[in-house]
Write a structure and sequence with these properties.
Number of strands: 14
CATH class: Mainly Beta
CATH architecture: Sandwich
Shape: globular
Helix content: under 10%
Number of helices: 1
Largest sheet: 7 strands, antiparallel
Structural class: mainly beta
Strand content: 35-45%
Distance between the termini: 20 Å
Order of helices and strands: EEEEEEHEEEEEEEE
Radius of gyration: 19 Å
Strand order of the largest sheet: 1-14-3-11-5-8-9
CATH topology: Jelly Rolls
Length: about 210
């Protein structure tokens, strides 16, 4: 599929095809009948990475979670790498945003082996070159980090955050209950309007992403 940035009236700009930082689409899975009725048993998924928009406004604080990746019991004992770009944008003058990775039971993902979370700066390749900053204390065991906190100047604006989450060797979810989620938590009086890109990889192969 070719994507162009067009003028307001759908004409091509004088310079031809133009790059753009934000292009949004709505995708719906439908049946093959003439009326294109909604398919209740279908899913729309991404492969390796995806971007999503979170137009949330929670004046007194709130949260939501979306299914992020599917992980079967055969991956017990391995490590999931989760890269999140530019999380925590807020439109309020003050506020706090926390991101959590939730396991299939809805609890914040954890590992006794430790969960590493790094701020990679503006490019993912900084992980390989060692140019990153740990944003959790030594010995951290939970997949949770602060994306924005205006009280102390914390911001991940324009940065990649890398999460290394070891899957417990005892991991054995029931069939159909193997989806992990991304939880977006806005603090009190925080209005968050965000576009977030997520790339998920399992050491050794890709996993199934669901927006």
């Amino acid at each position: 599929m070719r994507v162009d940035t067009l003028n307001f009236n759908a004409t091509i700009p004088s310079g031809g095809s133009q790059p753009g930082a934000h292009k949004a689409y709505a995708i719906r899975a439908v049946n093959a009948d003439l009326s294109r009725t909604a398919c209740s048993s279908c899913t729309v998924a991404a492969w390796d990475d995806m971007a999503f928009y979170t137009p949330i406004s929670v004046g007194a604080g709130g949260s939501f979670a979306i299914k992020l990746f599917e992980l079967g019991p055969e991956y017990a004992g391995l490590t999931v790498d989760i890269d999140i770009y530019d999380p925590g944008d807020i439109s309020s003058s003050n506020g706090k945003v926390v991101l959590n990775i939730l396991d299939p039971a809805g609890a914040v993902g954890s590992s006794p082996q430790g969960v590493n979370i790094y701020d990679l700066g503006v490019q993912r390749s900084n992980l390989a070159s060692g140019q990153y900053t740990s944003i959790v204390p030594s010995g951290n065991t939970t997949a949770s980090f602060v994306a924005t906190d205006t009280s102390n100047g914390t911001t991940r604006n324009g940065h990649w955050v890398h999460v290394e989450l070891p899957v417990p060797s005892s991991y054995n979810p029931a069939a159909g209950n193997d989806w992990w989620s991304l939880q977006y938590v806005a603090g009190a009086n925080t209005t968050a309007t965000d576009t977030v890109t997520v790339a998920v990889g399992l050491r050794g192969g890709p996993v199934h992403l669901l927006p």
